[in-house]
Amino acid sequence: MVFIRIPKPWHLPENRITAESSYFNRRRFLKTLAGASIGLSATALTGCQTASGSDASPLIGLMDLAATVNPDFVEGDRPLTGRELASTYNNFYEFGGTKNIWRAAQALPTDPWTVEVSGLVQNPKTYDLDDLTQTFDLEERVYRFRCVEAWSMVVPWIGFPMRKILEAAEPTSEARFVRFTSYYNESVTPGPGGFGRSLPWPYTEGLRIEEMANDLAFFAVGLYGQTLPKQNGAPIRMVLPWKYGFKGAKSIVKIEFVAEQPATYWNTLYPQEYKFESNVEPDVPHPRWSQAQEKLIGPGPDFSVEIVPTLPYNGYGDYVAALYA
Question: b/e string for 45-56 if b means 16 or more Cβ within 10 A?
Answer without folding.
Answer: beebeeeeeeee
